[in-house]
Amino acid sequence: MDATTTTMQRWILASATGFGLGRAPVASGTFGALLGLPLALALTTLHGHLAWQIGICLLLTLLAVPICDAAEKIYGTKDDGRIVADEYLTLPIVVIGLPLAGMMREGRVLESLILLGTAFVLSRICDILKPTPARQLQRVRGGWGIVLDDWFASVYALILTHGAADLIEAKLFPLIN
To answer: Rg for the chain (alpha carbons), in Å?
Structure first.
């Protein structure tokens, strides 16, 4: 940033870069997605209120679009690697329907953290691999192109996370307990 950068541009870049996490020299998307973990965990406090969880995730996704669009214009580069608002604002999608916060309240902290970690890893894998139509959506211009591929990757990760949750609970948790 130089002397001509406005206060609004500073705020846009701060939120777009995940308050600096997107400036990591390697795996900036993964570092930026870490900011989504507290959002994801907070979302699970609404377990049993699926409509609210979905609505909040849609609002976070819609919030990411103008942030990413404005940051892309400031940087002057299509989907600049420093822009990670798409990663952290769509990450909560991968825990929709999971009772992570409830598990923690019940004292099942380790189980909850394993599921949250699994959701995070699956999210990153799906974002990196970009299964169809995520890869094709990157061609869309502006903020929508930056965010839509992450949204679809998160939906794929949501499906995989629920499958993994069933598998982990059936196979791993009996070994721990």
So the answer is: 17
